Amino acid sequence: MGSGVIVSSDGYIVTNHHVIDGADEIKVSIPGIKKEYDGKIIGTDEKSDIAVIKIEAKDLNAITFYDSEKVEVGDIVFALGNPFGVGETITQGIISATRRSSIGIVEHENFIQTDASINPGNSGGALINSAGYLVGINSAIISKSGGNVGIGFAIPSNMVVNIAKALINDGKFVRAYLGVSIADISEDLSSFYGKKFGALVTGVGEDTPAQKLGLKRGDLIIKVDDKEVESASSLKNIISSISPNTRVTITYLRDKKQLKGTIELTSYKQTDDGFNNLHQNFQYKGITVEPLDENIKKSLGISLNISGVLVSKVDPNSEAAKLGIQRGDIILQVEQNEIKSVEEFKKSIKGISKKRLYIMRRGGIYVVAL
């Protein structure tokens, strides 16, 4: 069971992708109405965990959206949903934080964090403010027990609006694409950029907007139009919220000089798949994997013919760390599946809980079960 939010009087409902993913049929019940409705999937976006379904109904009470950019830490909020299937439930809390990213739940993260009690079954339900306006869609929790411990995450309403509109109108959401691989910078590294932070360019794809603009490895992107870029995740969220074929001004630092240029973003799906993967990373059981591009292969001194994904981060408290997996390892194969991209890795780890990972480190190959 999951929850949803009525966003139009004629039956469009927003929920989480993971609530309806793989469903053979969808049944929808509305508190106060005895009828059970059949739900039809209109469109889903796995990267943000948003889905839109439709029921045949009229004169429904649609929610009013609030500008999530105006949400502030300490605001009182209420979480609505159906936790553990017990029935319609509302809990109270506050906004604990905004713009949470790098949590490892989905690819595009810009979460509102709340301590309002959220449990399994709340997914897809509304997070509302004291006026009853929607500020977010409850999506996930952090918990060792599976129950609420006061750390819940909601997709901000502004992101929901952009993606839901596209899903309703086109059945899909297509993201804009700049064509760079990016990383965060440390406090020490920021001294090379006048103590500024942003998204560090670590690679530029061929025939991409970034290449046409003249971006190079080592540039630090600090602004898109008038929006400040605070981190790699920040840039990813800003670009992905812009419609393809939109002209934007990119401000960046190179050799302590501030430069800027205007370029037209392209569609994420229109670019070469081999470089699309550079825009992706994926978290799995304490490790973060990223595409293994030609530049990384050269820097590691390995053959350009080797395929796999690069382990770019390891949680020191994770099972992966205990098994000896290290930053810089290359995952070549999962069970019988040779890995050539992050997407192939994601598909290969689905299913049974433990998988054999074939890992290359300094020319040697070893196997772990994770």
Structure description:
- This protein has 370 residues and is α+β, with helices and mostly antiparallel strands.
- The protein has 3 domains: 170 residues, Thrombin, subunit H; 95 residues, Roll (Pdz3 Domain), CATH 2.30.42; 90 residues, Pdz3 Domain (Roll), CATH 2.30.42.10.
- Helices cover 16% and strands 37% of the residues.
- The strands form 5 sheets. Strands 20, 21, 22, 23, 24, 25 and 26 form a 7-stranded antiparallel β-sheet that branches. A 6-stranded antiparallel beta barrel has the order 6-7-8-11-10-9. Strands 13, 14, 15, 16, 17 and 18 form a 6-stranded antiparallel β-sheet that branches.
- β3 and β4 form a beta hairpin.
- The chain is globular, with a radius of gyration of 22 Å.
- The protein starts with a strand and ends with a strand.
Descriptive key words:
Thrombin, subunit H; Pdz3 Domain; seven-stranded antiparallel beta sheet; 9 helices; 16% helix
Short structural summary:
By secondary structure, this protein is an alpha+beta fold.
CATH class annotation of the largest domain: Mainly Beta
State the share of residues found in helices, binned by percent.
Answer: 10-25%
Shape field: globular
Count of domains: 3
In DSSP terms (H or I, runs of 4 or more residues), the helix count works out at: 9
- Which fold name fills CATH's third level, the topology of the largest domain? Thrombin, subunit H
The CATH architecture of the largest domain can be given as Beta Barrel
Radius of gyration: 22 Å
Spatial gap, N to C terminus: 29 Å
Structural class: alpha+beta
Work out the strand percent: 35-45%
Largest sheet composition: 7 strands, antiparallel
